[in-house]
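lol forgot to send this yesterday, sorry. struct tokens for the thing we talked abt
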């Protein structure tokens, strides 16, 4: 099994706008981040989802319960067919002081072979 390096982001509205600008300039990680968020929103239109922080039971549906942010985990060097994960974060969980740790733990359960390279958040 090959270990891949992943970047982890919490993307809130201001961070989304920065990612949009970077994607428009051709940055592949920003483009993949926006694709993942778009796919998550489309999936939420079909079926509500819970926050990835493991103990939250808030269902978000992109209509009545809109996510406050997104947790996105993408390969550090994206390539065709790469695995990436995006999940909605509710308005309660987005302010948790342990949000990054909870999200990273949940993502490691989904992809145990991942090596986390960078953990960033919206409040920098």
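and heres what i got for the seq, position by position
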């Amino acid at each position: 099994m090959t270990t891949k390096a992943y970047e982890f982001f919490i993307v809130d509205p201001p961070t989304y706008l920065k990612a949009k600008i970077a994607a428009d300039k051709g940055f592949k990680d920003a483009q993949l981040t926006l694709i993942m968020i778009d796919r998550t929103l489309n999936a939420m239109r079909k079926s509500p989802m819970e926050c990835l922080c493991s103990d939250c039971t808030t269902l978000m549906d992109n209509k009545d319960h809109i996510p406050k942010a997104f947790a996105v985990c993408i390969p550090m060097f994206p390539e065709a067919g790469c695995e990436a994960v995006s999940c909605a974060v509710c308005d309660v969980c987005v302010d948790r002081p342990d949000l990054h740790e909870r999200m990273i733990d949940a993502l490691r359960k989904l992809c145990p072979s991942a090596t986390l390279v960078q953990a960033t958040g919206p409040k920098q």
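The chain is about 35% helix and 25% strand. anyway ping me if u want another try
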